[in-house]
Structure formats: C-alpha cells, structure tokens
C-alpha cells in the first residue's frame, strides 16, 4: 500500500518559555493526508496550527511522535514543500519576477532563462502576467499574496503548506483569492494543508477539515466536505455548506473532549 503523503503519528510538541515554563502546543495528533487532497486545519488561536505546519516543513523537531512525508520521517526542510505565510514576505529590492525566481537564486546562486520562463508561466497562472517587472510596492495586498503563491510553486512542490494566507486581506479580496487558489489547485494539483481561523473559508476550500481543540491542540474531529467541485459562488448558498459551517461552529465552541 502506498503511504499517505503526510502522516502525523502521535505528534506532540512542548515548548519551554524563557521563564522555563512548559507549554504543550500539540498533544497526540494523528491523521493522514492523501495525494492531492486539500485539508484545512481549523482551530482557536494558540491551538498549535502554525506549530503543525512548522513541523511538516522540518523547521522544528517534535518532542513526541513523528511527521512523515511519503513514509519518511521529516528531520529537515525539503524541496518538495512550498510554503505561503500570512504575510507575503517579498523582497522589495527585486521586481515581481525576481521575487518569484528567488528560491532558485537562493538554492543555486543563479537563475536561468528556462526558470525565468517558468516564473512567467506561474505569474500568468496567478493572473499577474503583465506585472513581471513591477516593483513590489506597486502591487495591492492581494497581488502580493499571489506573487507569494507563484514563488511557492516555482520548484514545483508536491506539497503546499498555507498558513492563514488570506487573513491579512480585506473580505472581498479574500473571497476572490479563495476561488483563485481553487483554480490554481485544479490546474496544478498539489497536496495542500491550509491553516485558517475562518470556518467558511475552510468549508469552501477543503476536501476534509481537521477541527482542533483549544490548547493543548488535539484533533477534536475530522470532517468530510461533501460539496461538489468545482466550487463557485453557488457553493456559498448550498444548504450543505451552511449545515457544515453550523456544525463546526458548535464544535469549536463546545467544551474540549475529555483527555
Ligand atoms: N518557540 C516557542 N516557544 C514557546 N512557546 C511557543 C513557541 N512557539 C509557539 N509557542 C506556543 O505554542 C502555542 C501554539 O502556538 P501556534 O503559533 O502554533 O498556535 P496557532 O494555533 O497557530 O495560533 P494563531 O491562530 O494565533 O496563529 C501558543 O501558546 C504559543 O505561544
């Protein structure tokens, strides 16, 4: 049997604060993510969502259990992962194209014409074909986040990790970006783990939603999203959409499950 793309196996993360206090960010987290699946992780502030992402990315090591990618334990950052953070973290001294090709420059010290062409394709994919030579400060917040998505796709990662990528955007741009992301994902299928505080965003985007408890973050429940794809504005008025969102709202505001 092929292993899942990502597996969390009895994962736990305890941090030590500067004062020496132990903070349990994650506790006994176990679930799998399959190939090209879109999984949203939803939970209250401080329940360990970003910690989960940093563990998959190999940026920190778990204090208990393991994260596996294709059956191999994650011990360091890997190329098959692209990450999009809440803020686009672009470099103002490069133009848009320079930012998209930056992972190549960083990894190999140079960027070839082939990669520049690939970056232009990605800019077209995120609807920024005409902005390749613009300065970063000439772009709106939503456009900057699209540049960050194109940059995350440059090395053609199998896995895309997204940490509240649209939360700094206004509501309209946020909806627009959600549909944009779905379009990109159907064009270039990836295994996606998408972290969010937003129930509607999770329901609109995901195949499955992992609902976490407040800290220490445990998996409260994992829900299938039975909404058909492609999703559209009509999805937002589908009764299933509202029933699921209501269920999650109830789940998030109920008392945590007993340990
Ligand atoms: N390096 C660290 N040292 C000490 N505590 C940490 C560290 N990193 C995270 N924490 C703590 O672990 C808990 C989980 O943090 P994390 O950022 O993963 O939560 P989150 O669910 O992503 O929160 P938010 O939704 O507010 O971004 C928090 O209580 C946080 O203060």
UniProtKB/TrEMBL annotation:
Keywords: ATP-binding, Nucleotide-binding, Transport. Gene3D superfamilies: P-loop containing nucleotide triphosphate hydrolases. Residues 6-239 form the ABC transporter domain. Signal peptide: none annotated. Pfam families: ABC_tran. It comes from the Bacteria. InterPro entries: AAA+_ATPase (IPR003593), ABC_transporter-like_ATP-bd (IPR003439), ABC_transporter-like_CS (IPR017871), ABC_transporter_ATP-bind (IPR050166), P-loop_NTPase (IPR027417). GO terms for molecular function: ATP binding; ATP hydrolysis activity. Belongs to the ABC transporter superfamily. This is ABC transporter.
């Amino acid at each position: 049997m092929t292993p899942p793309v990502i597996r969390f196996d009895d994962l736990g993360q305890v941090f030590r604060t500067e004062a020496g206090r132990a903070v349990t960010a994650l506790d006994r987290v176990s679930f799998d993510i399959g190939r090209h699946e879109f999984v949203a992780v939803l939970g209250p502030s401080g329940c360990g969502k970003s910690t989960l992402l940093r563990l998959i990315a190999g940026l920190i090591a778990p204090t208990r259990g393991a994260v596996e990618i294709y059956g191999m334990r994650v011990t360091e950052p890997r190329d098959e992962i692209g990450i999009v953070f809440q803020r686009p973290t672009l470099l103002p001294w490069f133009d848009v194209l320079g930012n998209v090709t930056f992972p190549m420059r960083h990894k190999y010290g140079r960027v070839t014409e082939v990669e520049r062409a690939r970056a232009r394709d990605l800019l077209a994919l995120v609807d920024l074909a005409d902005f390749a030579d613009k300065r970063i400060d000439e772009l709106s917040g939503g456009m900057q986040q699209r540049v960050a998505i194109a940059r995350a796709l440059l090395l053609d990662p199998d896995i895309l990790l997204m940490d509240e990528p649209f939360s700094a955007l206004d509501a309209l741009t946020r909806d627009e970006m959600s549909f944009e992301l779905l379009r990109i994902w159907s064009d270039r299928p990836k295994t996606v783990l998408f972290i969010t505080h937003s129930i509607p965003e999770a329901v609109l985007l995901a195949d499955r939603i992992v609902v976490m408890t407040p800290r220490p973050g445990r998996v409260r429940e994992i829900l299938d999203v039975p909404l058909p794809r492609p999703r559209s504005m009509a999805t937002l008025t589908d009764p299933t959409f509202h029933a699921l969102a209501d269920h999650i709202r109830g789940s998030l505001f109920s008392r945590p499950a007993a340990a």
